[in-house]
Write a structure and sequence with these properties.
46% of the residues lie in helices and 21% in strands. The chain is globular. By secondary structure, the protein is α+β, with helices and mostly antiparallel strands. It has one domain (6-74). A 3-stranded antiparallel β-sheet has the order 2-1-3. It has 3 helices and 3 strands; from the N terminus they run ααββαβ. The mean pLDDT is 94.
Length: 81
Amino acid sequence: MESATPEEIALLKQMHRDWNWMSQHNEELLNKFENEFIAIKDEKVVAASASHDELLRQIKNLGLDARLMIVKFFTRKPQIF
């Protein structure tokens, strides 16, 4: 089995910090971004939109990679998967 590179470990640690930040600010984020997709990187919201496609365009326009951040739809409605 391959070991993770230092870059991969750093990315995983940052994503863990971002998940924790998102959890700690969940109510605040719901109040501000209800029924929107948001992108979180480095413990802050870097983009938000009601449209997933528009959110991805915003991320791309910022020169960022959506695969390297948290993208989540915020709603108070129960989600059925």
